[in-house]
Please model this.
Amino acid sequence: MPNFWHDIARRSAPAAEPWSVQIDDAQAGRVTLHGALRREPGALGKRCLVVVHGLGGSFDRHYCTTAALAAQRAGWSCLRFSLRGADRSGDDFYHAGLTADVHAAVSSEALADLDSVYVLGYSLGGHVTLRYALEEPGPRVQGAAAVCAPLDLELSAQHIDAPSSFVYRRHVLDGLKQIYAAVARRRSLPTPLEQVQRVSSIRTWDRLTVVPRFGFDSVDDYYGSMSVGPRLDRLRVPSLLVQSTLDPMVPPWTYEGHLAKSLPQLTVRRIPAGGHVAFPQVPDESGRPGSLEGQILQWFASQPQRT
Model:
């Protein structure tokens, strides 16, 4: 429903300048990432929110617009960008643990004069963001946040591939197939496009596309080596995880087991409302309703500065 209403109403994101950065990939060659950067004046404008979209989407999704509007209200600069190929450019495609694009965005020349960077990812973009936070992102990166993020790729795939998730699965696969088709028009790929177009499950998608493209031994190898859930105790920066207990795409049983241990760098917030990457006005810690993204920015601002 949020996607449906967004496509009809289309709230406008704040005015921004086109942004791009190039990455040299060993297999794909030169990959260009595209996005939109809005710079705000003043001291608060030296803080930059970097927004990462979900699976099959791009930087113009409704939740990315919501984040950009929250950054504008707070006086922060904001970069929304598309992971490789998400803009249907045909350069390449991405996977759940590919952090190179986030590294390239944060270290891009356009952000070089900004003092502090905070990364906010949604859905699979939230998983990528947390994977990024496991690495050493550099002293300017002060925090990371993930909204409705799958933490266990195996369990998440099982849920999305269940018959009850048909509508959500088809929505995601449609976007992924568009991305793959654009790449196939530009260069040869390990799996023929005709075979990929017949895929009807996430696990099969990963087996035929991600595994051969990125050199994993199998789907199990991909899920096991990339899932962030078992590694959350290794986060390098203060991180926030926001999950809806009613999420139809990432239900609690797929991730709660990974939150049962001590996680010193992770704050978890469970919200008994909303859906997948879409929330109503939610109460903050004082009970006052407000936008989720505004509260995430407040949480970021409350964290001690890394040096």
